[in-house]
Amino acid sequence: MRCVEAKEMAYRIKPIQRKKARALGVEIKPSTNPKKKLDVFKGGKKIASIGGKGYKDYATYLEMEEKGRVPRGTAKMHQEAYKARHENDRNVYGSNGYYADKILW
């Protein structure tokens, strides 16, 4: 029997993330960088690649809560931990950390 390597699927953008991106005046698409979740565009120009593929985000945790895979409150707990951990870069307007915070968390 031959082992076939599974091709990794593109990240599925959640409606809440599209809404947050619109509010910031940017567009998001699945990233062309295999290590990232999303590419952020402004005026058709790519300005950031955000979200490590190996990590979950707020919207993903919310979906997991709704499906009963994790206890209620897990998303909020991870959101607070993320924001504390990234306090230095998430408030730098226009940085990758800024867009990750505003769109993914």
Fill in the keyword field for this structure.
single chain; 105 residues; alpha+beta; 4 helices; globular
Number of helices: 4
How much helical structure, as a percent, in the residues?
Answer: 25-40%
Helix and strand sequence: HEEEHHH
In terms of structural class, how would the helical and strand content be classed? alpha+beta
Strand order of the largest sheet: 1-2-3
- Would you count the extended β strands for me? 3
Distance between the termini: 43 Å
- Which percent range describes the beta-strand content? 15-25%
Radius of gyration from the alpha-carbon trace, in angstroms: 15 Å
Could you give a short account of the major beta sheet?
Answer: 3 strands, antiparallel
Number of structural units classed as domains: 1
Mean pLDDT: 93
**Uncertain residue segments:** 1-6
- Coarse morphology: globular
Describe it for me?
The protein has helices at 15-24, 58-66, 74-85, 96-104, and strands at residues 27-30, 36-42, 45-52. It has 105 residues and is α+β, with helices and mostly antiparallel strands. It has one domain (15-104). The protein has a 3-stranded antiparallel β-sheet with strand order 1-2-3, covered by helices on one side. It is globular and about 40 Å long.
In short:
The chain is of the alpha+beta class and 105 residues long. Helix content is 38%, strand content 18%. It has a three-stranded antiparallel β-sheet with strand order 1-2-3, with helices on one face.
